[in-house]
Design a protein that fits this description.
Length: 299
């Protein structure tokens, strides 16, 4: 039976942009962390949250990094920038805040909860939440970058190619779901299997749903309006072939967009096989790219 209007109003879930912000923690020198801010409330599942890392001292509205975690779209957490960075102290997110960025690290619906395009809808909703609360939080969302690793790199690229952002950083992400099988090692990938990460994302194997696979592929969305991209991808990646990053770079160049494609010699997926100092170099290269796009006059 329908609820009485007064009870329906009482039980209605407030819009995420109207919810109070979490209290600030201070997990590292010079940083504040608003942990677990609800940015979206899809029907029938958990609220989606983000962690917002901020510098303690704010001189001007902050440029924003939207960070999207990996995990094959089926696992992973917003607290993780990848297995090789988990033990960093301060954390990579704290380091970005110390460098003058606001960093929003996101939950999104995993493939056990929803199929594409739900994940893109979620990261787009996070950007809209940040836009809505920009004045309250001291953000300059006109200076927003998308950054992700692995499956998160795929979503970061989709976000950057479908929504206005200042730039995009991708680490070893799948960029064309229709060519992944041909580029993989012989016998290592079956594009007709219903159990691959990509099939679970699409709700069907890429070979049996080519239109869905194309729609979910960042290369399909490249236009001349694409923002600058930094693409880092290991030369020895056995999970997502280097050719995936190269294919996105080629499409961007063909469209006239700015792209810096950097194969990382000797690196497997998730920077496996790299010495610690080379993992640090990947992070620093990415930070320098973000700073150049958003803080050209700052020291």
């Amino acid at each position: 039976m329908p609820l009485p209007p007064e009870l329906a109003a009482l039980l209605a879930v407030p819009a995420p942009a109207q919810l109070p912000l979490p209290p600030a923690a201070r997990p590292a020198p010079g940083t504040r962390l608003l942990r677990g801010a609800v940015y979206s409330a899809p029907a029938g599942i958990r609220p989606l949250e983000l962690d917002l890392w901020l510098p303690d001292e704010v001189q001007a509205p902050l440029p924003v990094i939207i960070y999207i975690h990996g995990g094959g779209w089926r696992t992973g957490t917003r607290t993780d920038m990848g297995p090789r960075l988990r033990t960093w102290r301060p954390s990579p997110f704290a380091r970005l805040a110390q460098a003058g960025f606001a960093v929003a690290s996101l939950d999104y619906r995993l493939t056990g909860e929803a199929t594409h395009p739900a994940q893109l809808e979620d990261v787009t909703a996070a950007k809209a939440w940040l836009d809505t609360r920009a004045d309250e939080l001291g953000l300059d969302t006109g200076l927003t970058l998308a950054w992700g690793e692995s499956a998160g790199a795929h979503l970061a690229a989709l976000l950057a190619l479908t929504t206005p952002v200042r730039g995009c950083i991708t680490w070893y992400g799948p960029m064309d779901l229709t060519t992944l099988a041909d580029q993989s090692r012989p016998g290592s990938y079956d594009s007709a299997s219903p159990t691959t990460r990509e099939a679970l994302l699409l709700g069907a194997p890429p070979a049996k749903a080519p239109d869905r696979a194309r729609a979910a592929s960042p290369v399909t969305h490249v236009t001349a309006d694409a923002p600058p991209f930094l693409i880092l991808h290991g030369t020895d990646d056995t999970l997502i072939p280097l050719a995936q990053g190269e294919q996105l770079a080629t499409a961007l160049r063909a469209a006239g967009a700015r792209v810096d494609f950097r194969p990382v010699p000797g690196a497997n997926h998730a920077w496996g096989g790299l010495p610690d100092e080379e993992v640090e170099r990947c992070f620093t290269t990415s930070l320098d790219f973000a700073r150049a796009l958003t803080m050209p006059q700052r020291p």
